[in-house]
Backbone:
């Protein structure tokens, strides 16, 4: 799980990226739909799956709101994301394997947008963070 070094790296990274949150969310989702087309099946009401689609942008904002919620509850994500986990498990029925696919898209987006700040170490710690988010979101599946 996340140690104090990870948390410090995530704090520094978050201070750099949070202002671009909406764009990051849209890009990560656009990439998810392009690189892993099977993920589009959860969004039957979307008309356009590209980065610039208003629906992708809107949903990107929502996902980043969830990421922010996770960041603000970094020491107890399971509790912090309980409602969101319930929603993904019971209402949306998203297979948890999709969380890993989205995480890999976040890595690509961050390394492209922040070639200097997204160091190997930042990548390592942010990957642990996203794995914890995925675990917390999967909490209600059992
Ligand atoms: Zn999800 C929704 C978050 C992943 C699918 N999401 C959602 C929301 C949020 C989120 C916040 C909103 C909710 C309400 O409304 O209440 N997600 C999130 C996060 C993550 C995610 C944080 C990670 C990181 N999701 C995901 C995935 C998928 C999904 C991977 C698949 C693929 N979601 C989804 C859906 C929805 C959501 C389908 C719904 C949409 C609509 O309705 O439009």
Residues:
């Amino acid at each position: 799980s996340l140690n104090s070094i990870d948390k410090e790296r995530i704090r520094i990274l978050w201070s750099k990226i949070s202002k671009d949150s909406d764009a990051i969310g849209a890009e990560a989702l656009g990439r998810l739909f392009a690189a892993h087309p099977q993920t589009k099946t959860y969004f039957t009401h979307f008309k356009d799956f590209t980065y610039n689609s208003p629906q992708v942008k809107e949903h990107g904002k929502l996902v980043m709101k969830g990421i922010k919620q996770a960041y603000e509850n970094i020491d107890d994500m399971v509790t912090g994301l309980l409602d969101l986990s319930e929603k993904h498990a019971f209402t949306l029925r998203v297979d948890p394997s999709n969380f890993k696919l989205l995480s890999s898209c976040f890595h690509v987006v961050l390394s492209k947008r922040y070639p200097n700040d997204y160091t190997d170490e930042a990548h390592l710690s942010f990957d642990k963070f996203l794995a914890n988010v995925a675990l917390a979101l999967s909490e209600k599946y059992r």
